[in-house]
Design goal:
alpha/beta, 11 strands, 4-stranded mixed β-sheet, 10 helices, about 40% helix
């Protein structure tokens, strides 16, 4: 692969996470590369000033939380306009290990052109968080390939339905051929959707096992949030409607309804009325095919 790289980071949540993320990426940029930061949440003046110190950083301020898909697309379009040949989506709570960007750059130039590339994402304890992902179209659930294992070359051969959006390298040609992230999904599942479109276009997914990223992998509080309950329930249905075989859908609905009922009971036991309501709203909107940002009531 010849041409520059654009690293795309969406700031949302912890400023310390964003600082660590930017600090891991900046030393790995070469001449002509750029780091595109989207302020999906307004940063402090201190963080804004820190980001502005490097000429390689271009900050984009939409003025509101666009969601992951739309925020990423804003930066991806900026990267393409700047001539980037490879664009790396990187969560702001993830850090690139030394040399990871060069290894992704090299992998993009090897063999048949890949549709998407991904490093191996590690947990803070050094075990694998995700090398890739698989989807069950019976339940709509996803799972990470290699989770809990030690990193190694064997992960490169893992069968993947999708590559994980925590750290996802997208060649310019892929975006030009299959398009951008689906903004109807807002957040959660947009990596699955993009990967499936790439595979349908006949392009391969490639894991680069010697490129490593560490993910903070927090999430107990987020997993229990009403907003996440809504988005995960809704987007799971939207993806099954698009990609799941019609003959599997009756079983999917039975299994999914049972899962929603369990989550509703979990919210009841915790006394969390917002969580219970969000789970049912996600079910309703998924059935109706409604995408976009979550309702203000969630």
């Amino acid at each position: 692969m010849t041409g520059s790289v654009a690293v795309v980071v969406l700031h949302y949540g912890s400023e310390e996470d964003t600082r660590r993320c930017l600090a891991s990426a900046l030393p790995q940029l070469k001449a002509g590369d750029r780091l595109l930061v989207v302020w999906n949440r307004e940063p402090s003046e201190a963080l804004r000033a820190e980001a502005a110190r490097s000429e390689a950083v271009r900050a984009l301020s939409p003025g509101r939380n666009l969601g992951f898909a739309a925020g990423a697309n804003l930066a991806l379009r900026e990267g393409l306009a700047g001539g980037a040949a490879l664009l790396l989506l990187l969560n702001n709570d993830a850090t690139l290990s030394p040399g990871a960007l060069d290894r992704l750059r090299a992998a993009a130039a090897e063999g048949p052109p890949p549709g998407l590339l991904a490093p191996v994402v590690l947990r803070p304890d050094g075990r694998v968080w995700a090398a890739a992902g698989r989807v069950s179209w019976w339940t709509g659930r996803t799972r990470h390939v290699g989770e809990g294992e030690a990193p190694g070359d064997g992960l490169a051969a893992s069968r993947a339905d999708y590559l994980v959006g925590c750290a996802l390298a997208i060649p310019r040609e892929t975006l030009e051929r299959v398009g951008f992230l689906d903004e109807a999904l807002f957040v959660y599942g947009e990596d699955v959707d993009l990967s499936l479109r790439v595979v349908r276009a006949g392009l391969p997914l490639r894991v680069v096992p010697d490129a490593l990223v560490t993910h903070a992998a927090r999430g107990d509080e987020e997993r229990a949030s009403a907003r996440r309950a809504y988005l995960v329930n809704r987007n799971k249905i939207l993806l099954v409607r698009r990609y799941g075989a019609a003959w599997r859908r009756p079983a999917f609905w039975l299994l999914h309804l049972a899962g929603v009922a369990r989550r509703w009971l979990s919210g009841l036991l915790r006394g969390d009325a917002a969580f219970r309501r969000a789970a049912w709203l996600g079910l309703r909107d998924g059935w109706r095919g409604v995408g976009g940002p979550p309702p203000e009531s969630v």
